[in-house]
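Hi V.,

Quick status before I head out on leave. The structure for the redesign project is tokenized and pasted below; the design run finished overnight.
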């Protein structure tokens, strides 16, 4: 699957966001090694802390279904669902990626016009992971 196609699925996922507090709607599309795609959105909570990011929603759906090998994730987001710039993954989501993905796992970010590709190693250098335990 092309980066463009995965990004389109991330944009579609934004429409599923439950974000009554921040108004930021975020979408993610996670590509498994076998070609399966899992979409995720952010799901906020009145207590704030339990909020789940779009990326983790996608990962947790995929892992529940038995997937452990991942190739790439596309992420986009913006206030009221309008993409006005790149929406990079938070630190917690980067760490969740690290649990299941290697250094070359690809992260596609879009500003609605073009896209940038980062590796997980670029986004989370000198990381702590399962190999350290
Ligand atoms: N959010 C994500 O969905 N992914 C991230 O990586 C960063 C933040 C969500 C959480 C919250 O609902 C909103 O964006 C504002 O922080």
């Amino acid at each position: 699957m092309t980066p463009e196609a995965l990004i389109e699925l991330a944009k579609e996922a934004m429409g599923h966001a439950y974000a009554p507090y921040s108004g930021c709607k975020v979408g993610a599309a996670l590509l498994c090694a076998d070609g399966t795609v899992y979409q995720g959105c952010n799901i906020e909570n009145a207590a704030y802390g339990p909020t789940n990011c779009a990326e983790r929603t996608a990962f947790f759906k995929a892992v529940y279904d038995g997937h452990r090998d991942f190739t790439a994730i596309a992420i986009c987001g913006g206030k009221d669902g309008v993409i006005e710039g790149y929406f990079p993954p938070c630190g917690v989501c980067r760490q969740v990626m690290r649990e299941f993905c290697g250094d070359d796992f690809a992260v596609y970010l879009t500003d609605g016009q073009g896209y940038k590709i980062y590796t997980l190693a670029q986004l989370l250098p000198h990381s702590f992971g399962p190999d350290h335990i």
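Above is the designed sequence. The CA atoms of residues 18 and 43 lie 5 Å apart.

G. will cover questions while I'm gone.

Best,
W.
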